[in-house]
Design brief:
This protein has 261 residues and is an alpha/beta fold. The protein has 2 domains: 24-161, Metallo-dependent phosphatases (Purple Acid Phosphatase, chain A, domain 2); 169-230, no CATH class. It is built from 11 helices and 11 strands. It has helices at 2-9, 37-53, 74-87, 96-103, 108-124, 130-135, 138-148, 151-158, 187-192, 195-198, 231-234, and strands at 15-16, 25-30, 58-63, 90-92, 164-166, 169-171, 207-210, 219-220, 224-226, 236-243, 246-253. The strands form 2 sheets. Strands 1-11-10-2-3-4 form a 6-stranded mixed β-sheet. The protein has a 5-stranded mixed β-sheet with strand order 5-6-7-9-8, with no helix packed on it. Strand 5 and strand 6 form a beta hairpin.
Length: 261
Amino acid sequence: MLKKLRALFDPQPEVELNAAIPAGQRVYAIGDIHGRRDLLCRMIAQIDLDDRARQPADTTIILLGDLVDRGPESRGVIATTREWAQRRNVRLLAGNHEEMFLGSFERDDIMRAFLRHGGRETLLSYPIDEATYGRVTIEELRAIMRDVVPEEDIAFMRAMEDRIQIGDYLFVHAGIRPGVPVDEQALSDLRWIRTEFINDVSPRDFVVVHGHTITDKPEMSATRIGLDTGAFASGKLSAIGLEGTARWLISAVGEPDRSVF
């Protein structure tokens, strides 16, 4: 039954490695969602089914950040995630896009960066019509945002974590600065780093699970697991299951957004 169930999810074979989750626990980590509520809903169903098909465990689900921007349903992603967290142990990491969204309420330079990198789509998922969006100033847009973005959505993003460590795995949004102890990592690196982290091949005694850097398929090595498969454009949202020393991948697949190619 379990083999048939996994086949429905198009998972990859389980891999046994030295890094481990503590006994009795199971972890699922999900890559960048970026407003693709359709894919999130499929992933929720698949993780719930996969978890039920396995032996009972203390299960934690981690979203690696960048729930918002670029895709069409950022508001819906936040609402759906909040509902899921009411019935499951769901933990949330803040990504650079949540940082920009929150910062845009206060600073013009951050607002401009937010709008350039998918914030337009986020705002249009709230009750802001496209014609109004197209004619207002930055100051007017900020006033509208304060009216239409619910306080609970803002509080939800502000409560997101910066890093999570479980067993031999460190979960962050973007990565870590090579050579810097985990407890001394700068917040800007946890949310924004890319090249220095991706190119680093130094050995370490834990595995970093991250999103932020888009690849065609999940990347797994002895020191890192990258799960951002560009869901907003590719139509593929990726996740990993971790239990003991086993790893398995789960994909939620939908229509790609051809407009961004």
